Known about the structure:
single chain, alpha+beta, 4-stranded antiparallel β-sheet, 2 helices, 28% helix
Amino acid sequence: MRFWAIVLTGAVLAGPALASEIDPAERREFPAYDANLPPCADQYVLGEISNKFSTAEDRFWNTSLRIAAFERIRETGWRPWGLSMIPRRFCSGVVIMSDGRKRRIDYTVREGLSFLGASWGTEWCIAGRD
């Protein structure tokens, strides 16, 4: 009987916390978000990933390896941690490298990730290259 009294008390006390309203990131005053992100296969998104990859290969690894093409791009998640978090789109696909090898790519398109947080930006990982 004591067990059920404790469970009931816990449920009564936790109820208001669990029922609290979710405050979307778009309602924040600072930083302000609008959740208007480009889709995974957007040419600007894929271009940014290609350019950043090329820059990293040149600067850090001294190779001429490039991303030649993208295929099978798909969205794997949209705001998976809820509306109150920074808007993010999760994507996955395959890249064809300039050496002819195909590799898996996983990336995010996140709001406020660009230079000075003015727009969206990307973070990415290519299997076997990170």
